[in-house]
Every structure is written in C-alpha cells, then in structure tokens.
Design goal:
Layout lengths: L1 H41 L1 E2 L9 E10 L2 E9 L17 E7 L7 E8 L6 E3 L5 E5 L2 E10 L4 E8 L7 E2 L13 E4 L5 E5 L10 E2 L2 E2 L16 E4 L12 E2 L2 E2 L17 E8 L2 E7 L6 E6 L6 E8 L10 E5 L2 E8 L10 E7 L13 E2 L3
Parallel strand pairs: 17-21
Antiparallel strand pairs: 1-25, 2-3, 3-4, 4-5, 6-8, 7-8, 8-9, 9-10, 11-12, 12-15, 13-14, 15-16, 18-19, 19-20, 20-21, 22-23, 23-24
The protein binds beta-L-arabinofuranose.
Length: about 375
C-alpha cells in the first residue's frame, strides 16, 4: 500500500507538474505577447505633432519680432513611387507656421510660395530656410530645375509669413539642397548647404557639376558640406563656395564608411557661448549630430549626438533660443507612418556646463 500510495502520489505529482508546466508555458507565451502589444501601445512620444491638419517637415525655426516662425517642407502624397533619390518627396508648395510661444496656438498661414510661380523650377520643393535683413524677409528653398539639377532659390516678402515673390533664376553658383542661412554677431550672413545621394552633392566637385559622379566608396573621404557668405542684398553668393571640414578629435576627416558621424544633409548652424555649432543629419544612420568650431568656416570637430533616430527615414532639425530657453525643432512620421508624410515637433534642448548637448531621444518606453 505504501508503495502504491507512493506510486499514486508520485503519479499525481507528475501530473500536477505537467499541468503546471504546460500552464506556465502557456502563461509565459501569453506574457510575451502581452508585453509586445503593451510595448507598442505604451510607446510614448517625447512630443506631439505641432499641427495635424497638414504635414510639415524639415523645420527651420526663427524668432522674428518676438514670434516663432517655422519654415518647413510641405509634404503631400502625389503618388510618385519611393526610390533612393527621394523622388517621393514631391512637394509643390510651402506653408509657414507661427506661434507666439512654445506650446501656444499654431497658425498655418496658407500657401506662401507655389511651384507654379517659380519659373526655373521643374519639381521637388525641399527643405527651406528664411532670414530677415534690409527690412525684408528672405526665403531660401532648394528645388530641381528643368534639367533635374538641384539649386537654391530665393524669394522675398515684407512679412515673415509671406506670400513670397521668387526671383526668376536660382542663386548663381548655388547647388544641392538644404540651405541654412545663419547671421553672425557682426551682421554677416552665411549660407550653409548640401546633401548627398538624392541631394546630388556627390556630383559637385570644385563647384563643377558632373552627372556621372556617384556616391563615394566606403574608404573614400566623406563628402563635405558647403558654405558661402551672402551678398548685402541677400540674393547672391558674395564669394566662391567653400567646403567645410568636419574632423574627429584627432583632426582627421571622416571617411564615407564613418556614416554615423559624416555629413549627409540638413545643415543648421547656431552660436552658443561664442562657439559655432554646426549640426547635421548623418542620413542612413538617422542621427542628428553636432560639431563645434571657432569660426563660421570651420573646421568643426565632431562632438556628439543631438537627436537619436526618430520614427521615419529622414531626420532634420533646427535649434533656436527663445525667451531664455533652447529648443530643438524636428520631425518624425508619428501621424502617417509614411516616410514622405512627416509632422513637425519641438522639444527643449539642454546643454551641459562644458557646452556639450544632452542628446534627445524622440520617444520613450513607459516604465
Ligand atoms: O524633405 C526632403 C528632404 O528630406 C530634405 O531636403 C532633407 O533634409 C530630408 O529631410
């Protein structure tokens, strides 16, 4: 009996263990699934889109007369298939947004400039910027001409929100994409620009165009962004375009394969404590990074990350000070999930006492 009792209890224990194990197995796979669902549902964005009725990307933010104006690309779905050259970024006009404070009501000022009114443009109105000088507002925009070559155009208005009247030709000597117009403390304006791959910068060497030049090989030196001083009327380059050196801490230029640090597109310059901060996108590694220099022409020493990869392929930023705080404007694809329909966001940016930037992550997992 003892034996059979033992046998029974042994069998019962075995059964219990088997049930428990299978229950646990079931429970654990359920837990994993739940965790995954939870993870998706609980993914919290650091900031919410500033507007939801229109897709605005590539934000260049400025304080004009105490109000914040955002000059960005106006993303729309035109049905152009996606390719590596960014043909699906097929924008046809610009809208300017403004607000009186961070967190304040946003005004969409409607169409400020349309492709139909720009005689030299063939297609693709990409990331713009703006500047105030001579009691006027200047709007700088890259677009492909009728030969499908990117140049940078300028348009003017007596109001920061436009409408803007474009010049009949692009800025002479300008090329590629993503202009950033920076005013130094002495009043001089510089235009930074350039973007590789779809932005065609790889085709420009010594300021000459060569359509046969492709992307660089991994061990080649990385392509460098460009800069030129602007003329007093803000409509021309006042000097030949120069390359800007971005170097590592030992002073060496990056190679193409250093694609988490080398320049891709989205130049943005600002000054902090007397130093020049050149910020840009690394493109295929999706970071916004910064390099610091002592003058507007560089060299700039790579220092670190401003913004970790956002949702979407592209990343594009601007940084401005407003009422004593610093802000990072950026975009992601939270609203659409589509790489070419992006929404603009803003978050506060913090500096460390040594002048380095505290990197921003655009979303956070909830605890
Ligand atoms: O919006 C079109 C292009 O995508 C911009 O010019 C790049 O900076 C990237 O954001």
């Amino acid at each position: 009996m003892v034996i059979s009792k033992n046998k029974f209890s042994c069998a019962a224990s075995l059964l219990a263990i088997t049930i428990l194990l299978s229950c646990n197995q079931h429970e654990s796979s359920k837990t994993t699934e739940t965790k995954e669902v939870d993870k998706k549902q609980q993914k919290e964005y650091l900031s919410q889109p500033l507007v939801t009725n229109i897709y605005i990307a590539d934000p260049s933010a400025h304080n004009f007369g105490g109000r914040i104006y955002i000059y960005g690309s106006h993303d729309t779905a035109t049905g152009v298939p996606e390719d590596d050259l960014g043909s699906h970024f097929d924008m046809k006009d610009y809208h300017i947004l403004s607000m009186d404070s961070i967190g304040g009501k946003i005004t969409d000022h409607g169409v400020a400039l349309t492709i139909k009114d720009i005689p030299w443009v063939g297609r693709q109105l990409w990331a713009p910027d703006a500047a105030y000088a001579n009691n006027r507002y200047y709007f700088y925009f890259p677009a492909k001409d009728k030969n499908d070559i990117f140049h940078i155009g300028v348009a003017t208005s007596n109001k920061p929100e436009g409408p803007f009247v474009p010049e009949k030709e692009p800025i002479k000597g300008s090329y590629s994409i993503d202009p950033c117009v920076f005013k130094d403390e002495d009043g001089t304006f510089y235009m930074y620009f350039g973007g590789i791959w779809g932005g065609q910068l790889q085709r420009w060497n010594h300021n000459q165009y060569d359509s046969t030049k492709g992307n660089r090989k991994p061990d080649d030196l990385a392509i460098l962004p460009r800069v030129a001083k602007l003329s007093a009327d803000m409509k021309a380059l006042a000097e030949p375009v120069r390359e800007i050196k971005i170097v590592d801490s030992s002073g060496s230029l990056f190679k193409e394969k250093n694609n988490d640090k080398r320049f891709f597109e989205a130049s943005w310059m600002f000054k902090y404590n007397g130093k020049y901060y050149f910020t840009y996108s690394t493109g295929d590694t999706h970071k916004i990074v910064y390099a610091i220099g002592n003058n507007p022409y560089g060299p700039f020493t790579y220092t670190g990350v401003v913004l970790n990869p956002v949702e979407g392929w592209t990343s594009h930023q601007s940084i401005m000070q407003f009422r004593g705080k610093w802000y990072l404007f950026y975009h992601d694809v939270q609203l659409s999930g589509k790489t070419y329909l992006r929404n603009v966001k803003v978050t506060e940016l913090h500096f460390n006492p040594d002048g380095t930037i505290q990197p921003v992550t655009a979303f956070k997992e909830s605890k």
